[in-house]
Design brief:
The chain is an alpha/beta fold and 464 residues long. The chain has helices at 11-27, 42-45, 75-89, 99-102, 119-123, 129-137, 161-176, 189-213, 221-230, 242-257, 266-293, 299-307, 328-354, 361-379, 383-388, 397-409, 420-434, 443-463; strands spanning 3-4, 36-40, 50-53, 56-59, 63-69, 91-93, 109-118, 139-143. Helices cover 56% and strands 9% of the residues.
């Protein structure tokens, strides 16, 4: 998809982008004027919309903008641009604290994903879905077209960890905006919108992961839903009612495109949370086991397994109840398996980006992962050290996230009861961060404290 300018975009989107482009041209140093400005993501595809609030039209989602500049920018050179955008439009970077944007009288909104890159940084992209989606859906707003210089990327080069990490990040953000305080007070309109946005993204990226596993991945949200509706694959056995699940994916797509500001009671918000947790929770054990299966099985075999449909009249695989399943064996297995998975992932990435075509590269990666996995399991400084030093450890943050996220996400039941055994296991994994468990708190407060701990640590890691 090679579209230029703002043609075809909504009036509100086009107006915002023109203002941002003008500020970039006017407030960047003379020797750092943009070479190119690109828009990508939902707004570039026309899949994200605006909502009306107190006489203003506000974006429901982020403006993903890449600004290619001739040289690296200093922080003091970026600040005037960001300050002027905030003054004129009320838009802040998505990395800013979210609390001011959730207040009832919020006048600023974290919707600006503005990335300044040199030509070299722009062209050197990791082989993941972010790169693939950018190439598929970007718009050149102005300047030189550099996309033809990006190294081509096929879907078969992308690791299954890429869509899994996206889904995990979406679940963390949904957790962040699910606050037990809503059981005692009315959430603000902006808190409801933040929750709704996170929920829409979660369903749409879960559809993306499933279409990836079906070997028919699509960047567009509508196309993802169409792929799933046309599929009779094994994934249909992972939810109680596949058609109702697909209806929720479609509702998320429509709401993201035509959002509306509305008041929702705290109880209604939690009903939506439990509905989402049930859909994602029933799939999570199957997804994690597929990821673990890639350690022994080529991805081609995994794709074949997921595409396989059940014979007529046969029962689907059992659906796992997220509020009854015992996550401990699964998490324990991950702690054992993931170090070698992480090494294999890293080595495959290194070989791909080096441009080499080694005839036995997968065999090499397998040997290396087993060697490193065995070595690390024999000489580990202990699980506590690993979790306390994620940046230097063999246990990748994505692995840690996959291991503990279900424990928190699905330990709060629809009756607002807490599965304390799940939180106790989480306490064991997270103890290096917390220094002490939260077992002295009442159940709901303990769930909230544990959730905040997980969200804080994973968001802090992502920011680094």
């Amino acid at each position: 998809m090679n579209r230029s300018g703002t043609e075809g975009l909504s009036t509100d989107t086009r107006k915002d982008l023109e203002e941002i482009q003008r500020i970039l041209r006017d407030h960047l140093p003379q020797d750092a004027k943009p070479i190119s400005i690109y828009l990508s993501g939902g707004f570039a595809r026309g899949e994200s919309g605006h909502y009306e609030y107190k006489g203003r039209s506000l974006p429901f989602g982020d403006y993903d903008i890449d600004v290619v500049v001739p040289r690296p920018l200093l922080e003091k050179e970026e600040d005037p641009v960001l300050q002027r955008i905030e003054e004129e439009l009320g838009y802040r970077p998505v990395t800013d604290p979210s609390e001011p944007t959730l207040a009832a009288d919020a006048s600023v909104h974290n919707v600006l994903d503005l990335r300044f890159k040199t030509r070299e940084e722009f062209l050197e992209r990791a082989p993941d879905l972010s790169c693939y989606d950018f190439v598929q859906s970007r718009r050149l707003l102005e300047g030189e077209n550099l996309v033809s210089e990006i190294k081509p990327l096929d879907l078969n080069e992308i690791s299954i960890f890429s869509p899994w990490r996206i889904l995990g990040n979406r679940l963390i953000l949904l957790l962040k905006h699910t606050d037990t305080d809503f059981l005692e007070r009315q959430p603000t309109v902006h808190e409801v919108l933040a929750f709704q946005l996170a929920r829409c993204r979660l369903y749409l990226d879960l559809a993306g992961l499933l279409s990836f596993l079906l070997e028919d991945y699509r960047t567009g949200y509508l196309q993802r839903a169409e792929v799933l509706r046309a599929s009779s694959g094994l994934w249909r056995g992972w939810v109680r009612d596949p058609e109702r699940f697909l209806d929720r994916v479609e509702s998320a797509r429509k709401f993201k495109q035509t959002p509306r500001a509305e008041e929702i009671t705290g109880k209604d918000l939690f009903d939506l949370w439990f509905q989402t947790a049930e859909d994602v929770g029933s799939m999570t054990p199957h997804l994690i086991n597929l990821i673990l299966l890639t350690k022994q099985t080529p991805m081609e075999k995994v794709f074949e397994i997921v595409r396989r449909s059940e014979p007529k009249g046969a029962s689907h695989p059992p659906v796992v109840d997220p509020y009854l399943v015992d996550w401990k064996p699964l998490v324990a297995r991950q702690v054992r398996q993931y170090p070698s998975l992480f090494y294999r992932d890293f080595i495959e990435h290194y070989i791909r980006r080096s441009g080499r075509r080694l005839p036995s590269s997968k065999l090499l990666c397998g040997f290396a992962s087993r060697y490193y996995g065995t070595f690390e399991n024999a000489t580990w400084r202990g699980r506590k050290w690993v979790l306390k030093n994620l940046r230097r450890s063999v246990l990748s943050p994505a692995a840690f996230q996959a291991a503990v996220l279900p424990l928190v996400a699905y330990s709060l039941t629809p009756k607002y009861e807490v599965k304390t055994d799940a939180l106790e296991f989480f306490d064991q994994l997270m103890n290096p961060y917390m220094m002490m468990p939260f077992d002295f708190l009442p159940d709901l407060k303990r769930w909230e404290a544990t959730k905040r701990c997980l969200v804080h640590e994973m968001l802090a890691y992502r920011s680094r």
